[in-house]
Design goal:
Layout lengths: L29 E8 L2 E6 L5 E2 L3 H10 L1 H8 L8 E2 L3 H18 L3 H15 L8 E8 L2 E11 L1 H11 L3 E2 L4 E2 L1 H4 L10 H8 L11 E6 L55 E2 L2 E2 H23 L14 H17 L1 H16 L11 H5 L5 H13 L4 E9 L5 E5 L2 E5 L5 H15 L9 H4 L18 E2 L9 H5 L2 E2 L5 E2 L1 H10 L16 H4 E2 L17 E8 L9 H15 L6 E6 L3 H12 L1 H19 L8 H4 L2 H24 L6 H28 L8 H30 L5 H37 L23 H14 L2 H21 L18 H12 L5 E6 L8 H4 L13 H9 L2 H4 L8 H10 L5 E3 L5 E2 L8 E3 L13 H6 L1 H4 L13 H4 L3 E5 L5 E11 L6 H24 L6 E4 L12 H23 L4 H24 L6 H27 L4 H31 L5 H31 L19
Parallel strand pairs: 6-9
Antiparallel strand pairs: 1-2, 3-4, 5-6, 7-8, 10-11, 12-19, 12-20, 13-14, 15-19, 16-17, 18-19, 21-26, 21-27, 22-23, 22-24, 25-26
Helix pairs in contact: 1-2, 1-3, 3-4, 4-5, 5-7, 8-27, 9-24, 9-25, 10-22, 10-25, 20-22, 20-23, 20-40, 22-23, 22-25, 23-24, 23-25, 23-40, 24-25, 24-37, 24-39, 26-40, 27-38, 27-41, 37-38, 37-39, 38-39, 38-41, 39-40, 39-41, 40-41
GO molecular function, one term: cholesterol binding
InterPro entries: HMGCR/SNAP/NPC1-like_SSD, NPC1_MLD, NPC1_N, SSD
GO biological process, one term: cholesterol transport
Length: about 1250
């Protein structure tokens, strides 16, 4: 068993020294310097006793660096002679070595003090030969210590390591052990690997000589004899503090963190079988009650309720429309002339129309919070980088192994040699794009590791890819050799080291910074949030080229040109090994333009299909011989021209008002207005054809009578649709709002033109028909064969003789009621389960390269976007009291901004924050505390880089507070600009230019003192690829910001922080989408109820029937959205609002016809279904269906999902309710003693 002697030089640590008898005066192993080896002094071998340290400067260093040893050796009275095994030069070397450690570990004073115990014991402690064994080599006329064995207890080493293991590196948000553990990262490091890395002179340029650490729990061997003596200390935990010192802060030591409640996230609602519990229970109860009521009504003896449908002033609307129709039919030329003037005047405004393709302008309102925050960020810090990215997958999916010194390693298919070589060759080709034309990558890239005024070369550009681990050197990648242990050392060994510890200098890219594995590779097996995946198992690579961005679009010409070269090059790139997906910053905007241009053909085909159907269906063609006389082709053309004219007028009207629109709206609105407007054409023409024209003296009176009958219904449906689109215009999303505004104006203008211009066209066409002239060949006459009797079409006959009797039979009515009850209740159950969001790829054309990019993003993206916590002006950063509410180091408040962000990052599965936030103020304070980092030119007083060796560059004169932790206000303000100008290196790793040059906005006064205004703290998020993930991240970010702002208010500080992420602006709508949906739909339902109530002359019964049917249509639309995986977003919400308006069309005409009919409820239902239902089917359902089906072949997924699917659902569900459920419900009403008009133009039974 090993003999362990505990030794320490600090009574204050409650440790003790047990000297072996006869060993109290053991010799030193070295004393003084020998010679330089590289940049390090070697120690001269010695076997003499400890000597006095006769140097006040060195004694002050030893007192500061080794306080516990100093107090012990100076004795209780402090007057003993200081005897050490190091001279003054070695004390200075000790301080220099500790200064390097300060740059990494100084955030945690206890860690630094614990490290100092073992370093001071080794370097200067009396009798250190007890636990050190020196191995000497000759040099000149003496010997020097070539390497040593350091016998250290495992408990001591473990406690020192544990006190340092949690320290964070503010610039990267990663643990410092990613920097300080050699070839291991914080996840795989332990105390042995840490100490071994600090003693490995062969692998590290910062270790002066080899230190072989031996631990007391090692197996007994040649290096661990039974009588070996081990150094045993009692270091403090990170949450404890030494005398006159501080414990580590919360960010660097979990023990120091206050007890806090973990964030709960958004609470999931109560669910049953995966569905929203409340609606599930309500639907179930309502469904059961209605089913019981239906069965009771069907098989019992119950009296139908007496229902009254009174009309207070319905005759006024009838008379007004009849008068107006007669006037327009009597003076068609005048009416058409006036309409043409109006159309021309309004249409001229198109020249002033603005069309945008900017995604931000499309999806974020000017008053939206995220839009305001984005504009604030862009204005103060500049817009987010321009990201040009390539995802690469190998076509060969094979995994393979590699025998390495660390063991047998398994690699994913992304690391196959030939695949990597081709990827790197592809990267080299991209890096050369545009160089010959003067618009190369160096002209547009982001290059943070340059001093102001330096022009970047391509090697200085930030390129995140695996090739950076080889410094873009193909020969280094291809290098391979066998080591002394017969291991093949090649590119895989470099990848193993760099993927595990990307912060090693040997792994830095040519731009001077690290390559993040989470950005460079992807497709690893999934791990829990906050855990690093096994990067060696990657199945794909990511190449990211960051470009500078500008607020002024005119300054982006070079960027746009290079990005176009990037896109064109990759579009034409082919490979047998690589499967690539890519996107440039301009790609989405280009895709929006491509989408708009690509759908013109779809819309044109839709118009042609609908035109053909209307032209055939409008006429009453009895034979081929009379086709051109009885057809209504010119009238159909006129009706479609009127629809297009209404769209043109809408575009021109809003163009005059400078309301920006989108190409998508310009293409969808004509289709929408055509689908909505053509049904009015059918209803007017069919109503006129049903009249017995022999009862009218002339054509214009007959047309006036027809318009008098259908005018109120047309007004009701048009007013409802207009109201619903107007409500859609309250959306915060610009694309949706302008779409609704343009559509509302088009609907209104279409209605006005239909009751004017189309009535005039009807009169002209009827005169043509009655004069025996042919359609389209009006100069050709035929013999007059007039038929003034009412004309009944084939469809109406089918309704009268087959469909209506079948539907209104008792058995079928029961089945219909039960079926609709079940479907509606099921729809109500699933409606709350509709997922909010809009998949990114749906907004792109199917054949766009961006679609594949979004798909690959889901597989290969392993790192989320950065979140910037923007702190507005209001703090005096030079005052320690105000530093304490934002910083994360020693003396900082437990609820400071940095501490709160760190605390939240410990719960990444909820907050979506992957790391602690970068903190420029902590790094600035640490940078100032290192004497050789801040330098100034003694002649000009200007900034000097920290690595400058010029004689004119001197250390900055600095003043600190009494405790030495914080700079005094003048020192703080004077050197901010120096910190933000200094590039980091091994000596001054916390210099701020690379990480913080854009993060701090300040002004300088005449004396060169800075006043900091705006600043941000950057924090990486976890990977988000779906709308719910982005929405949750935004929600949590706002919650965190509100808690931080509450903390500021509690401290009486008038300052505000807000989160900004480049993606947040597109997902803000989903935070309130359900509230917006319920509000908009509720408002729409109120609008159509009010419109119906007013137009029907305060017929409350008719208004309630229409309202009930429309509610059923909307509920079933929700069920269809859930079943067809249509998400809830601003587009689908507007479609639901439109569904309310269009639903009125399927219902209102039949309700009005039912009201005006005679007989029992069954008779009235039969007649309204026969006469009006057939027109609804042919004029509303089939016309819309004809145009909608074409959208199924659209290249746009937005068209397919949100226009084809939803409008198909609106048509089919609306038709089912209007032509199946409504007649059944109406037939069940009571006597209906309503007020009925008795005019000569009363609709006649065919």
């Amino acid at each position: 068993m090993n003999k362990l002697i505990s030794w320490i030089g600090a009574l204050a640590l409650s440790s003790w020294v047990c000297f072996v008898d006869g060993q109290s005066d053991l010799p030193c192993i070295w004393y003084g310097r020998s010679h330089l080896k590289g940049s390090h002094w070697q120690n001269k071998a010695d076997n003499g006793p400890a000597r006095p340290l006769n140097s006040p400067e060195a004694e002050e260093i030893f007192k500061r660096r080794c306080p516990t040893f100093y107090e012990e050796y100076k004795g209780p009275n402090g007057d003993a002679e200081l005897l050490l095994c190091c001279d003054a030069d070695q004390a200075i070397d000790l301080d220099a070595g500790m200064t390097q450690a300060d740059g990494v570990y100084s955030r945690c004073p206890t860690c630094v003090a614990n490290m100092a115990l073992t370093i001071c014991a080794m370097t200067c402690a009396q009798n250190h030969s007890l636990f050190l064994t020196a191995y000497n080599e000759p040099y000149d006329n003496h010997e020097y210590v070539e390497h040593i064995d350091y016998r250290l207890s495992a408990e001591t080493a473990s406690k020192v390591y544990n006190s340092c293991a949690s320290i964070q590196h503010p610039q990267t948000g990663r643990p410092v052990m990613d920097l300080g553990c050699g070839a291991y990262n914080a996840k795989t490091c332990d105390y042995r690997k840490w100490y071994n890395s600090m003693g490995d002179a062969d692998s590290s340029d910062y270790v002066p000589f080899t230190i072989n650490y031996i631990y007391d729990d090692d197996e007994v061997g040649s290096s661990n004899e039974d009588d070996a003596i081990f150094l045993h200390l009692d270091p403090l935990d990170c949450g404890q503090s030494y005398d006159n010192n501080y414990a580590c802060a919360c960010i660097d030591c979990d023990e120091s963190c206050p007890i806090s409640t973990p964030p709960a996230g958004q609470e999931d609602p109560w669910q049953i079988a995966g569905l929203y519990g409340v609606t599930f229970i309500v639907s179930l109860i309502v469904g059961i009650l209605l089913a019981v009521l239906i069965f009771w009504g069907s098989f019992g003896r119950c009296q139908a309720p007496n229902v009254c449908m009174p009309t207070l002033y319905g005759g006024f609307l009838h008379t007004s429309f009849r008068f107006w129709g007669t006037f327009c039919a009597k003076h068609p030329v005048l009416v058409l002339a006036i309409c043409s003037w109006v159309i021309g005047g309004l249409g001229y405004g198109i020249r002033y129309m603005n069309v945008t393709t900017d995604p931000v302008e499309l999806w974020a309102g000017e008053e939206s919070r995220t839009r305001i925050e984005k504009e604030y960020f862009d204005e103060h810090f500049g817009p987010f980088y321009r990201t040009n990215q390539i995802f690469v997958k190998p076509k060969d999916k094979s995994y393979f192994t590699h025998e390495a010194p660390s063991g047998l390693l398994q690699f994913g298919p992304a690391y196959e040699f030939n695949f990597l070589k081709e990827v790197f060759e592809l990267q080299e080709a991209i890096m050369k794009l545009g160089l010959d034309e003067g618009v190369g990558l160096n002209k547009v890239c982001y290059a943070p590791m340059l001093y102001p005024g330096e022009e970047p070369e391509v090697k200085d550009c930030v390129i995140q890819s695996l090739y950076g681990y080889f410094q873009h050197d193909m020969s280094r990648f291809e290098s391979s050799y066998e080591d002394s242990n017969n291991y093949t050392i090649n590119y895989l060994n470099q990848l193993e080291d760099c993927l595990r510890v990307p912060m090693m200098e040997d792994c830095f890219g040519t731009y001077g910074g690290p390559i993040e594995p989470g950005i460079a590779v992807g497709g690893m097996p999934k791990v829990s949030a906050g855990e690093d995946p096994d990067y060696l198992l990657a199945t794909g690579l990511v190449l990211t080229f960051l470009g500078r961005n500008q607020n002024d679009p005119s300054k982006l010409e070079n960027n746009l040109e290079w990005e176009l070269k990037f896109i064109n090059f990759l579009k034409s790139y082919t490979s047998d090994r690589l499967d690539i997906a890519f996107s440039a910053e301009r790609s989405i905007q280009d895709a929006i333009v491509e989408l708009s241009e690509g759908e013109v053909g779809t819309v044109v085909i839709s118009y042609v299909v609908m035109f053909v159907y209307v032209a055939i269906a409008l006429g009453r063609i009895r034979s081929c011989r009379g086709f051109f006389r009885e057809s209504r082709i010119m009238l159909a053309i006129g009706g479609i021209v009127i629809v297009l004219a209404s769209v043109v007028c809408s575009l021109g009207f809003w163009g005059y008002l400078n309301v920006t629109t989108t190409m998508l709206a310009i293409e969808v609105i004509p289709f929408l207005v055509l689908a909505v407007g053509v049904d009015n054409i059918f209803i007017m023409v069919h109503t006129y054809q049903r009249l017995d024209r022999s009862q009218y003296a002339n054509t214009h009176e007959a047309i006036g009578a027809a318009i008098g009958q259908v005018g109120p219904s047309i007004l009701q449906s048009a007013a409802s649709e207009f109201a619903c689109f107007a409500i859609g215009a309250i959306s915060d999303m610009p694309a949706v709002r302008t779409f609704a505004m343009y559509a509302a104006a088009a609907i209104l203008l279409d209605f006005l033109l239909q009751i004017t211009a189309f009535v005039a066209l009807m009169a002209i066409d009827e005169r043509r028909y009655r004069s025996g002239r042919l359609d389209m060949l009006c100069c050709v006459r035929t013999a007059k064969i007039l038929n003034d009797s009412s004309d009944v079409g084939m469809l109406e006959k089918l309704f009268k003789h087959f469909y209506a009797p079948f539907l209104l039979s008792k058995t079928v009515k029961t089945i219909v009621l039960l079926a609709f009850t079940v479907i509606t209740c099921l729809s109500l159950m699933v409606c709350p389960s509709i997922e909010p969001g809009l998949d990114q790829e749906l907004s792109m054309p199917k054949d766009s390269h961006v679609v594949k990019y979004f798909q690959y993003m889901d597989d290969l993206l392993a790192m989320g976007a950065p979140v910037y916590w923007v702190l507005k002006p209001g703090l005096d950063y030079a005052q320690p009291e105000q530093q304490n509410i934002i910083c994360g180091g020693v003396e900082c408040n437990d609820d400071s901004l940095s501490v709160q962000l760190y605390t939240q990052s410990r719960y990444p599965e909820i907050t979506s924050l992957a790391r602690s936030a970068s903190s420029w103020i902590d790094d600035y304070i640490d940078w100032l505390s290192i004497s050789d980092c801040c330098k100034y030119n003694a002649t000009t007083l200007a900034f000097c880089p920290s690595n400058s060796k010029s004689d004119d560059c001197l250390p900055c004169p600095r003043e600190f507070t009494d405790d030495g932790l914080r700079p005094k206000p003048e020192t703080f303000n004077r050197y901010v600009q120096f910190f933000l100008s200094d590039l980091p290196d091994a000596e001054c790793a916390k210099a701020g230019r690379a990480a913080y040059a854009d993060a701090v906005i300040y002004t300088l006064d005449d004396e060169g003192l800075a006043t900091i205004l705006d600043t941000y703290f950057m924090q990486y998020s976890t990977t988000s690829t779906t709308s719910p993930q982005f929405t949750s991240a935004l929600r949590e970010a706002r919650r965190i910001a509100s808690e931080i702002n509450a903390m500021y208010q509690a401290h009486g500080v008038d300052v505000e922080v807000f989160p900004y992420c480049v993606f947040f602006i597109f997902y803000e709508q989903y935070l309130t989408i359900w509230n917006d949906a319920l509000f908009s739909l509720g408002l729409s339902l109120v609008a159509i109820f009010v419109v119906t109530l007013l137009i029907t002359g305060f017929d409350i019964t008719s208004a309630l029937i229409v309202l009930f049917m429309v509610i059923c249509i909307v509920i079933n639309m929700g069920g269809m959205m859930w079943a067809w995986s249509i998400t809830l977003n601003a587009i689908s919400l507007v479609n639901l609002v439109v569904c309310v308006g269009i639903g009125v069309e399927f219902v209102s005409h039949i309700v009005r016809s039912f009201k005006e009919a005679e007989g029992t409820a069954q008779d009235r239902a039969m007649r309204s279904l026969t006469v009006t239902g057939s027109s609804v089917l042919s004029g509303i359902t089939l016309t819309k269906f004809a145009g909608i089906v074409v959208l199924a072949f659209s290249n746009s997924q937005v068209f397919q999902v949100f226009y084809f699917r939803m409008y198909l659902g609106i048509v089919l569900i609306g038709a089912a309710h209007g032509l199946i459920l409504l007649p059944v419900l109406l037939s069940l009403l009571g006597p209906l003693p309503g007020l009925r008009k008795t005019s000569s133009d009363e609709p006649l039974t065919p």
